[in-house]
Amino acid sequence: MAETKTRLKNSLIDKVVMDESLQLNETTESAWIDVIQKMDKVYADLVHYQVELEQKNAELEEAQQFIRSVLESMREVLIVCDTGGRILQVNQALEDLSGRLERELLNFPFNELFGLESQPLVEQFSEKLGNDDVVDCEVNLLTQGGGFMPLAMNCSSRYDIKGKLLGMVLIGRPVGELRRAYEALNKAHIDLKQTQEHLVHSEKMASLGRLVAGVAHELNNPISVVFGNMHALKRYGERINNYIADVNKHLDPDLHKELREKYRIDKIESDMGPLIEGTMEGAERISNIVLDLRRYSGIQKEQPEPFELKHVVMTATEWVIKASREKPEVRYELLDSCVIRGRQGQVHQILINLIQNAIDVMERQAEKLITIGCDRDDKDVRIRIHDSGPGVAEGDMNKLFDPFYTTKEVGKGTGLGLYISYGLARDMGGDLSAENSADGGAIFTLTLPLKVEADG
Ligand SMILES: Nc1ncnc2c1ncn2[C@@H]1O[C@H](COP(=O)(O)OP(=O)(O)O)[C@@H](O)[C@H]1O
Ligand SMILES: [Mg+2]
């Protein structure tokens, strides 16, 4: 009891309650009101600070959430270090790639995240700290399960607002993604180039077509003249020969011999026939070429009609094989029935060209095989003619369809077959292309629309 009394005497309450001088009178009452008013003000201030603090807290939290969402949505890896290279912060992308959680990584030396082979490069980051930035340096980040992921890393120094060096910020983009983007770009570039080449090629073919049609037309008249004149010359030659023979009968044999030698009549007589024959043959070849060209230039255009593709493929093949000395083996992989509406004669002509070419390239080999395959979709049908020949030399691929391109000896090839066939295929809204097969030989693919529109 005595102890409690002593404690009370020393406390503030004690003073207020016990001290006689503090007993309420007028003066002490106003002092008390003063104190209470001050306390009120302090309390109001406190409430105000509390509200402000809560507001600041909410703002801070929002800012933190914003930064976190940015860091988490980054697909690049982010590592923030102090000047000693200890990790202060990482983002989700690094956690995902390295397979380690942020809390495991905090205070961890950043260089241990990278493979041994990358260490000389990683050392640069610390060496250049406060001086140069490192840009696009390819390092290998160790990943879960002992693998690695190549990163294109940028490293820059980090400062506080007073400019004091605090450490570094590393940002790495997985190179796989860059490569994929690069490959996509590359592919787009190749596609674009191919389209451009195709356009240039089509335009070249179209203008060549016009040129050739014009030339063919113009050549027709002079060739008829050559033909007509050669026939007349042949007849005249025969008559002159007869005339000379008659005159000779009345001449002195010595004079006859002398004159014949002087004018070298023997040689002329023996040359005359082959010269005329040769010229006529040449004119005939030119006339055949012109006929082919005129055929292509659409002078004798047929109207589209429905026909069975299998039938045309088989008759064209049989025709060519019947006419050739060397008979190849033919394998048909055709559609049972495929009726298309197009120009049967033109399709026939293209197929004859392609099959003849296939037979020609296999001329010198013992095993000769031609596989003729067919497939279709809703719009087109494709006929593939695959031979077991030597294929086409890489550098010659883009010359195949040029007019007069041939590797055959003079008199055997005109170099017009593929050119004309290409023109005919395009004419029907189709296409003709060539490629080398992985199994050897060349494959020519004729694409035809199932329905060719009639003209006019
Ligand atoms: N199946 C093929 N395999 C390899 N080369 C070919 C094939 N078909 C055509 N060629 C090449 O294309 C050239 C042109 O063919 P083409 O236009 O039909 O003219 P030509 O048959 O008169 O030579 C041929 O000389 C040949 O070099
Ligand atoms: Mg040919």
Question: How would you describe this protein?
Answer:
It is built from 12 helices and 12 strands. With 456 residues, it is an alpha+beta fold. It has 4 domains: 2-69; 75-180, PAS domain (Beta-Lactamase); 190-296; 305-449, 2-Layer Sandwich (Heat Shock Protein 90). The strands form 3 sheets. The chain has a 5-stranded antiparallel sheet with strand order 2-1-5-4-3. Strands 7-9-10-12-11 form a 5-stranded mixed sheet. Strands 6-8 form a two-stranded antiparallel sheet. Helix 7 (175-249) runs antiparallel to helix 9 (265-296) and helix 10 (309-323) packs across helix 11. The longest helix is centred in the middle third of the chain and has 75 residues, at 175-249. The N and C termini lie far apart (128 Å). The structure holds adenosine-5'-diphosphate (ADP) and magnesium ion. Adenosine-5'-diphosphate is lined by residues 353, 357-358, 361, 387, 389, 392, 400, 405-408, 413-419, 442.
